[in-house]
Protein 1
Amino acid sequence: MKKYKIVKKIIEKEELVKVTCDFCGSEFNESFIHYKAFGKINITFGYSSKYDFRTFEGEICDSCFEKLFKSKLRGHMWN
Ligand SMILES: [Zn+2]
């Protein structure tokens, strides 16, 4: 037999409240943050490269992506 009692607990959790573009510093609006609509950069180098197994991460706005990466990278639709 199990017996339970009701307890009230305060649970703390992280909430994302501010995100900025790592290239131009512009701040994404609340809607972009809610839907995680900002670009995410993740570059990983392999063994024996100058950056041996290191990963670089960051956030990027649409404008900086178009200026710096769009024409140089392969794109895929997520569906
Ligand atoms: Zn930017």
Protein 2
Amino acid sequence: MNGDIPPEGPLGFRKKLLVTGGAGFIASHMIISLVNSYPDYLIVNLDKLDYCASLKNLEVISNRPNYKFLQGDICDSDFINMLFARENIDIVLHFAAQTHVDLSFLHSLKFAYVNTYGTNILLHAARLASVEKFVYISTDEVYGASSYEEFDETSPKRPTNPYASSKAAAENIVLSFWERYKIKHTVSESETENWLVYVNDRPVNDLQYPMKLEKMHSLGWRPKVPWKEGIQKTIEWYNSNFHNWQSSEQTLEPFLHEA
Ligand SMILES: NC(=O)c1ccc[n+]([C@@H]2O[C@H](COP(=O)([O-])OP(=O)(O)OC[C@H]3O[C@@H](n4cnc5c(N)ncnc54)[C@H](O)[C@@H]3O)[C@@H](O)[C@H]2O)c1
């Protein structure tokens, strides 16, 4: 948008985006990028502020007029329905989830509850509010591990842990809303690479999740930073910002226990 603010809509912003889980690892970067790139869009960050959340990562945009933070739980249907009624949301980017694979074996019911029930609550509210688009952030883990076969969204789902199972279930619920109500949706399977440090292995560990990249490349996406440079910058950033999270020290343990 290059700083040119197009005409405002009747409510002051051209669009209103709801980003769930915006105080988490991935969505906090998405929010910073959206707030900077779209000054005419209101970006509403809804986050419960669970143990893995950090509002410190959002300080660079926290005072901007097109950013708003709401603390709340996606599983609280009254709160979610009220939010949609009040905020006139146009687009939902749904990142909020319980994400820690090891913890998912200890708390599989909680993972199923937040990741599937919470997604249901959001979908119902989004449908009633006639939102334009619902973007569900899934995971490449829904396909299980493979050392040779590349996956795309038509591949069979073979999750190997309760986290991935709950994400796969939620993905199917999003697709069923499309079948029934034709809610425009996008399912995104983000792929991340991990820096290896030598700790005890997880009780169950998938070696890798190879994803086909043709579709992403056909949209024009290319990495701007080479992997080695990116991982080095990432480590430097975490070294400088280690205490942005309340329970940072615990993350050095190979198996996190819930705070
Ligand atoms: N990190 C990865 O490697 C990866 C890879 C593929 C897909 N994903 C998906 O991307 C999304 C974001 O992942 P992340 O790594 O940033 O996760 P994260 O754990 O860092 O962040 C999740 C955020 O969701 C919030 N949250 C949890 N329960 C909530 C609830 N009931 N109501 C409101 N907010 C709640 C937390 O407070 C946190 O801020 C998830 O849906 C995850 O499944 C992540």
